[in-house]
Amino acid sequence: MNKSGETGVIKLFTDILDKLNIPYAIGGSIASSLHGRVRFTQDADITVMALDDKTDPFYSLTKRHFYISKSAMHQAIRNKTSFNVIHTQTAFKIDVFVAQDNEFNNNLLQRAKKIKLSEDTEKTFSVVSAEDIVLLKLMWYKQTDCTSEQQWSDILSVLTAQASTIDFEYLKTWSTKLQVDVLLNKAMKESKKL
User: Fold this and answer.
1) Dist. CA 15–CA 32, nearest whole Å
2) Cβ atoms 96, 83 nearer than 8 A
3) How many other β-carbons are positioned within 10 Å of the β-carbon of residue 41?
């Protein structure tokens, strides 16, 4: 699917979140591409605040255009994990991460930047900040026992592209709290060589 088609599907889904006043932030490879080097993606990652009393209207609105498993959605909401929705016309998948109620996730949603994903739509989307996408990808990289070359490449590309504007104090503080400070130091050294 081309970029405008991808953006159209993301718009369709985020319009539902906006309608229900559910805070969200687009992360994953879309966020790292916007803040770093562009790369092809086959899906979208979106973090949402807990749906709570909005579960039923969210499900009703979403199932009009997407395949969504009600049981998987309820399990993800209960356990603060993830579920996915698949656009019925294009099969484009969106992984929906239900944010755990902690300081990092609250910061992540509050610090999200409003960014246009393409020139085909006037809408600005809530996208994870450069600092937070680096931290998220460092955590994912650590969870894969530091074997995901794609995650590492994304981290380096964001650090390199945003070198003059990124908030290194924020990165250092949160990398320590999230126990990825050793990996951040390694990534910062490597990004300076690029």
Assistant:
1) 22
2) yes
3) 15
- Residues with Cβ < 8 Å from 136, sequence gap 6 or more? 27, 108, 128
pTM over 0.90: yes
Query: pLDDT, tens digit, for every residue of 100-154?
Result: 989 999 999 999 999 998 888 889 999 999 999 999 999 999 999 999 999 999 9
What does the block give as tokens for 2? Answer: 């081309």
List residues bridging with 45 in a β-sheet: 95
User: How far apart are the C-alpha atoms of 184 and 139, rounded to whole Å?
Assistant: 10
Alpha helices in the chain (DSSP H): 3-19, 28-35, 55-62, 70-79, 103-110, 130-143, 149-161, 168-177, 181-193
**In angstroms, rounded to a whole number, what is the distance separating the alpha carbons of residues 97 and 50?**
9
